[in-house]
Amino acid sequence: MNVTTFSALAEPNRLDIVELLRDGPLSVGEIADRLQLGQPQTSKHLRVLSDAGLVEVQPVANKRIYKLRTQPLQELDDWLETFRRIWEEKLDNLEGYLHQLQKQDHHNAGKK
Q1: Residue 108: is it exposed, middle or buried by C-beta count within 10 angstroms (0-12/13-18/19+)?
Q2: In this structure, which topology does domain 3-71 adopt according to CATH?
């Protein structure tokens, strides 16, 4: 798991950019307009995302089109999967324990 990915996604504007690009490639100007950011600020955020490998840029005429790269996000998802499994196991154990308590309550209620 690459710490650079977390660092890049930790900034709210960059996370917003990633969410925008999830729907498809956009130019710097389109991203800036949709997020109501200045173009220089947007370009700086895109540079950080690009350095982290989260986006790739493709020059088209006089525009720079940014596209989301899925590989770093897949790596992040793979890393998070280990934690999901741990929590699913804990929740399954809790569910079993709660069912056991319910059975005891029903059993004790029947004795009264």
Answers
A1: exposed
A2: Arc Repressor Mutant, subunit A (1.10.10)
- Say which residues have a Cβ less than 8 Å from residue 37's Cβ, sequence separation at least 6: 13, 31, 45
Domain limits, the chain: 3-71
Whether the Cβ atoms of residue 48 and residue 8 lie closer than 8 Å to each other: yes
pLDDT in tens, 84-111: 888 888 888 888 889 888 888 777 776 6
Enter the pTM of the model: 0.72
User: Starting at the edge strand that comes first in sequence, how are the strands of the sheet with 63-68 ordered?
Assistant: 26-27, 63-68, 55-60
- For residues 46 and 57, is the Cβ–Cβ distance under 8 A? yes
Task: Return d(Cα 6, Cα 86) in angstroms, integer.
Answer: 21
